[in-house]
Amino acid sequence: MSGIWHISHMEMVLRLLCATGLGGLIGLEREWSNHAAGFRTHILVCIGSTVIMLLSIYGFSEFVLEGNVRLDPARLAAQVISGIGFLGAGAIMRNGSSVSGLTTAASIWVVAAIGLCVGAGFYFVAAVATVFVLVSLFALNKLEKHWLHAKRVQEMLVKVNMQWGSVASIVSAIEGSGLSIYKLQTKLDEHSDRGGETGHVIVLQLLFKQPSREKLLLAIDLISTLAGVISVHVLQQPGTKRMKERQAQLQP
Predict the structure, then answer these.
(1) Is residue 160 within 8 Å of residue 229, measured between CB atoms?
(2) How many Å apart are CA 189 and CA 205, to the nearest integer?
(3) pLDDT in tens, 64-114
(4) N or C: which end of the chain has fewer CB within 10 A?
(5) Nearest Cα to 104, choosing from 36, 173, 151, 172?
(6) 152-246 in CATH: which number?
(7) 74 and 142 in contact (C-beta within 8 Å)?
(8) pLDDT per position in the chain (252 positions), as tens?
(9) CB–CB of 192/159 below 8 Å?
(10) Which residues of the chain does CATH 3.30.70.260 include?
């Protein structure tokens, strides 16, 4: 009966190597996409989960024959599933109305599950799960960008001096560029010191649905010609040199 609770050193090393390889494959994709949790992070998470699973199953084998002891191999594994969420939460970032890092946090959680499978000896499940994760990160990511592009929301922040600028003129300039405003919010900033002059500043938050880069550039050019405009900043837009030049500080 106690044979199932023992494992050779060579088998342990094999499982740790397998965890390193599978976790590294997923981490390599995250590293390639320039995410904070990349190659080494995913490897460490997968190895750690495997070690905990090995400990949970085989680390207490000497107590198997004790009459008052009941082994539960899933106890430590359950703590990994809940505890890995804290690590994944560190990869989630909020920038205005957009949230990034959810996919990386999910990949960390999946890598932990793969490590548990490897530690328990479920090589087939771990390998198939790794393939599915890689397909999801590579292929489905491209399909998502192609099919769901129409549902994406673009955010623009415009700062304008309340004494010189006019919200109506900014809205007219945006509509003149061909953009359709999905949502508009305004808030009053405290003060802004510009060239020795201090005055109240209005911050406009404008949301657009599926705007083209050309229309965004045209809108920034039109807004920059208006009196009182302090700065224009576009969020969640693929970075290009031309876009970054437009997002520089604008002087009225």
Answers:
(1) yes
(2) 12
(3) 666 666 767 777 888 887 888 777 777 666 655 556 677 888 888 899 999
(4) N
(5) 36
(6) 3.30.70.260
(7) no
(8) 446 777 888 989 999 999 999 999 988 888 887 776 778 888 999 999 999 888 888 876 666 666 666 767 777 888 887 888 777 777 666 655 556 677 888 888 899 999 999 998 889 999 999 999 988 887 777 776 666 555 567 788 888 887 655 778 888 888 888 887 877 888 877 555 544 445 678 888 888 876 677 888 888 888 888 877 888 888 754 444 444 444 444 444
(9) yes
(10) 152-246
Q: Which is it for the CA torsion 246, 101, 94, 207, positive or negative?
A: positive
Q: Is residue 181 helix, strand or coil?
A: strand
Hunting for tokens 């609770």 — which residue is that?
5
Q: Which two structure tokens, joined as six digits, stand for 250? A: 């604008």
Q: Where are the alpha helices (DSSP H) in the chain?
A: 9-32, 39-58, 74-89, 102-120, 123-147, 167-176, 213-224, 241-246
Residue 176 tokens read as 């003149």
- Report the distance separating Cα 226 and Cα 23, nearest Å: 53
0.70 cut: is pTM over it? Answer: no
